UniProtKB/TrEMBL annotation:
InterPro entries in the record: Homeodomain-like_sf, HTH-type_TetR-like_transc_reg, HTH_TetR, MT1864/Rv1816-like_C, Tet_transcr_reg_TetR-rel_C_sf
Domain HTH tetR-type: 15-75
Short name of any one Pfam family annotated for the protein: TetR_C_33
Keyword annotations of the record: DNA-binding, Transcription, Transcription regulation
Keyword DNA-binding: yes
DNA-binding region: 38-57
Gene3D superfamilies in UniProt: Tetracycline Repressor, domain 2
Name the record gives this protein: TetR/AcrR family transcriptional regulator
């Protein structure tokens, strides 16, 4: 390095400013959750002046929503990876069960590995408007909510889940797994040993399966 030269900054130089700002906000969210995603810090990290953000985002809420969707897409990718790592199943029923369980284990794994992004992913409007938005989808084109729905549909198709119990099952399964994830990263279960966490995850998914 030449004398007097400082370290290179990973800043925005040209191209897609909107995505550069989302990437910068994403990294801030990873470090500090949704509270860390503020316009001034995001533009500073992207290497542009604060006013530049207003070309693409009306206010902080708009930026935070975009970062939230990007974080949600990462949740989906982790769930997809968990499913992709499954060994071949003995039959259709076993495969459907394994894919369903992988949705839950991937979800909790993401929460524990990326708590800042997990909190940001669910810093969303108070409805289901964006649950199927393509900006929150993983590499397979499905959002976390859609991955859960597809896994439940597979259970029905494989004859594991009675068809009359399918309506609304997403909300029951999601509530149970999300509750556990929240307790593990922000609640009294955050001090559990890794083996205890693994057992808790399996027990909750067992409970959901039995309930369905």
């Amino acid at each position: 390095m030449a004398e007097g030269a400082g370290p290179k900054r990973a800043t925005y130089r040209h191209g897609d400013l909107r995505n550069a700002l989302i990437r910068a906000g994403f990294e801030l969210a990873r470090e500090g959750g949704p509270e860390a995603v503020v316009l001034r810090a995001t533009t500073r990290r992207a290497g542009v002046v604060p006013n530049a953000a207003y070309r693409h985002f009306a206010d902080r809420s708009a930026l935070l929503h975009a970062v939230s969707q990007a974080a949600m897409a990462e949740v989906a990718r982790t769930m997809e990876a968990e499913q992709a790592a499954l060994p071949p199943a003995a039959d259709a029923a076993a495969g459907a069960r394994a894919r369903f369980r992988a949705v839950g284990t991937g979800y909790v794994r993401f929460a524990r590995e990326e708590p800042g992004l997990f909190r940001t992913a669910f810093h969303v409007p108070g409805d289901m408007t964006h649950a199927a938005d393509e900006t929150a989808a993983g590499d397979g084109g499905r959002t976390p909510f859609e991955l859960l729905g597809a896994a439940l549909d597979d259970l029905v198709e494989a004859g594991v889940l009675p068809e009359d119990r399918r309506p609304g099952a997403e909300f029951l399964a999601w509530s149970a797994v999300h509750g556990l994830a929240a307790l593990l990263i922000d609640g009294p279960l955050r001090g559990l040993h890794a083996t205890q966490v693994q057992q808790a995850v399996q027990d909750v998914i067992d409970m959901i399966e039995r309930g369905l």
